[in-house]
Amino acid sequence: MSEKVKTIAEVVKTVPDGSHIALGGFAIARNSISVAHELIRQQKKNLTLSQSVVGLETDLLVGAGQVKRLIMGGGSLDRFGPVHCVNRAREASREFAHDYSSLSITFRYLAGSLGISFIPIKCLLASEILERLEAGSAAEDVRRMKCPFTGEEYLLMRALNPDVSFIHVQIADRDGNCQIDGPTWSNEVQVKAGNRIVVVTEELVPTEVIRRNPERTIIPGHRVEAVIHQPFGGHPTGVFGCYDYDAEHLKLYVNHSKRAETFPEYVKNYILGTKDHWEYLEKVGGAKRMSELKAVQIQGY
Amino acid sequence: MSEKVKTIAEVVKTVPDGSHIALGGFAIARNSISVAHELIRQQKKNLTLSQSVVGLETDLLVGAGQVKRLIMGGGSLDRFGPVHCVNRAREASREFAHDYSSLSITFRYLAGSLGISFIPIKCLLASEILERLEAGSAAEDVRRMKCPFTGEEYLLMRALNPDVSFIHVQIADRDGNCQIDGPTWSNEVQVKAGNRIVVVTEELVPTEVIRRNPERTIIPGHRVEAVIHQPFGGHPTGVFGCYDYDAEHLKLYVNHSKRAETFPEYVKNYILGTKDHWEYLEKVGGAKRMSELKAVQIQGY
Amino acid sequence: MPDVMPEAQVRATEIMAAAGARELHDGEVAVVGIGLPQVTAMLARRTHAPTLTTLLEIGVINMDPKDTPVGLADSRSFYRATCWSGFLDIMGMNLHRGVVDVGFLGALEIDRYGNINTTLLKEESGKIRYFNGSAGGNDVASLAKRVMMILRHDKRKLLNAVAHLTSPGFVGGKSRQELGLRGGGPHRVITDKAVLGFDSDTRSATLLSLHPGIQLDDVLASTGFPLQTPKQIPLTPLPTAEELRLLREEIDPNRVYIT
Amino acid sequence: MPDVMPEAQVRATEIMAAAGARELHDGEVAVVGIGLPQVTAMLARRTHAPTLTTLLEIGVINMDPKDTPVGLADSRSFYRATCWSGFLDIMGMNLHRGVVDVGFLGALEIDRYGNINTTLLKEESGKIRYFNGSAGGNDVASLAKRVMMILRHDKRKLLNAVAHLTSPGFVGGKSRQELGLRGGGPHRVITDKAVLGFDSDTRSATLLSLHPGIQLDDVLASTGFPLQTPKQIPLTPLPTAEELRLLREEIDPNRVYIT
After folding, report:
1. Which of A213, B198, C36, C49 is most exposed by smallest CB count within 10 Å?
2. Does this model's pTM top 0.90?
């Protein structure tokens, strides 16, 4: 097998403009920050992003103007604030975002991960969410139907299959076998629905470590195209068992993101102004700050 | 919460004749033998059994004449032989079994576990399996349909929701939180599709043990109606990490099961002739035999 | 410490938490969010509902945090769980499966039929401002057996028509069956002034109790839709001394949510 | 030990395993059963296809057993796996997802179009005898990119019409697309006498090679359907000395499957 361990820059170079990308974060947890930054450095354009619950990584890409279409279930930065950039983009164009719910996006990924092109659900019915989807460009992704067995009314949704799914994990081996610590929200189906799968890992471990707990392997290596080893790759979001979210930096981020005029300054200082994630980490406090954020083992944060 | 820890006899008493039961075994692995035996002792009648891959537990119940309908994907006793009793019953009546495949039964459980009443699949098409289903009493459970989004032809199947799902696990706590060691075939969806869920566990552990590896909890306690603590409850099938299958007893079983005339003798000697699973274990070799079968920790068998 | 505190010393959020907790029964399954819903569930677990099961959409069952989380995505809310899974298990194999008794939802706006808006607001200028959207809100509203709403009592939040119907209640006063929805729909609205329920015939919001010290006129003036009111209006019970102790000393000692 | 063994010393099962292994390419994903398919995959992994991924339907990826399992359900086949999951992952999120390159299937009967019967046999008396049924067989036949069949060469097993079409090949000589099936369908039939392929036009079984020492007449007499045969019939290569060493000393030292 060709070597799968690559740098973020190498991998992002292979992502064409206009791709449909699914990032694996949730609000301020386990975001693919290192990937979002590199997508910005390489100025990828006209991206479609899909996600059950969007967070910082997606707010960054939308704020940087690289996203054409957002397929989302919802999102926030928890108590640190809303996803201001995403919300501004939704305000600017009613067609920018296809709003669903957490479960309906997850079901669309489930269908994609199983290779079935549609799936029924009992959500979104009798809501303005569905009315809007049916009235806009998402109309081709939804259909109402009665169950042929029970006669119950359902919404059928088209499977979601991202061109590239990214996931940030605690440990992976060189073949791409990866294991996650903590809850996994929609990660398994979001990733397995992807036509290409890229894993960013905090720790690169020998396969022997994987074999010790094979039931924890959430994505098997044969599905994985590339493995990126990037410690603190999720900063400033938290990675359970590795490090806590960086409250100070999240506040700083929101202070920039809440106004369109101040956001570019954040991108300039912390992303375009740094050549890679290591330089970014230095800029936000380096080893000292990372050590402060490092998780206490028993509690995981 | 009322005490969930019960005896097998107590729980089986609450299962009405004619129930649809799903047992959690696969061929000669992790079978709910203690449950099958008690269903026989209490002479439960007209049962419907569903299972992705049937094994010893189901062969026993069919051989004892307590099963009216079997919904199956396939089955065997691995190299020890076929499921003779099941095969004889299929030979006696073409309507006895609804034959599917492993994945199609698993998808029907998946739909049941998610609370969707139907699910599409790309299997069984262009096969005599489907022709037979459509021609018989299973016709009401299958429909052909084109995907409204892609136009691709699919088979729609009705969700499976057993009245009671049983599962045999390595560890569970008194609330029913349970964790499985080794592969889980269709256990998660088979159990979560059940309207009632009963867990039989080799070890009853404090909840603190569950909290140590919450990602391994395959069935959360709030779904579980009853917890039965029955060491060696899977004998003569194997339970990974606990004990190996009992090759000698499996051969003895097949020597009885291969002919209709000799099978009742097995039921009489080992099931009706024993008042509970402890007495059964004595009959098949007691502590000495169980110690021989006990797994070597590192290898799990 | 007297068995019931003089109301002056009791915060509205404490009354809300106690009122919410009383709606949760032992052995039930609840989907909760971080904030007052989680505080409410914790209070119920530590008083009359020790076996209440709490589900977090993100994939956490029976969290037992020792530090106060800032949200669902905070590792603090994963602590000492009995199960870590994900949306497919929590929202699919539990909520969509039909085993969730109670769902707690916050709201930007609600109307008399318990329809919820968490997506956008229309400013006087006509400008539309977007917020978080549904996340699990529509799923919970569609599927939970009972939906409990917790929000500030303000006539710009409780109004005749929501700016966007994100999560359905009794849309247009219709029954859930007519709407093709499985869940039982709106059950309670717990505000900082009162507890509302829904009339079984009209399916419209009705006043169940006033918090101690709150006047009916105040509530009516703060409610943007016509509110059915009984002749005799009971008072929302104050939290017991033990409930207050739990809230203040154990559940939210840093007053992150009990503000 | 010479590089190629004199054929007299080579068992048919060893030739079958080596022939099967040659059909597996490095980096591919194969659904295997226990027995010759697993032996074949192991041989490929230890020779030219070190990164071949093996999937067991039950939920085991890249098993590395140190003791010979008696079947899928034998704990010995769980040993040292890189992933333990289940049907939904292996057969759903891999096979149905379309990422499985090769599927191995055994059979009671097959016909010229690679249709497989694993369900029942009709005896001369007319009595029907049932066997294991499909299990994952129909799923693999429907969805894998290439299907490899391994069975004993016997005209009662390779015949004009199977007693029950459990798993579809090129049904009635139709294309997979016409049949509404995703997988590529039948690719090879490996028997104890020969290796068969399928004609790209007629989609009917064709003789690709004879095992050393086997006569064409023998194969034709043992085949219950008309078999397309080329003018020049190549010999199936014998296993190399290293392949034999691996099979005999490492992969199946107790001769459980190499019989």
Report:
1. A213
2. yes
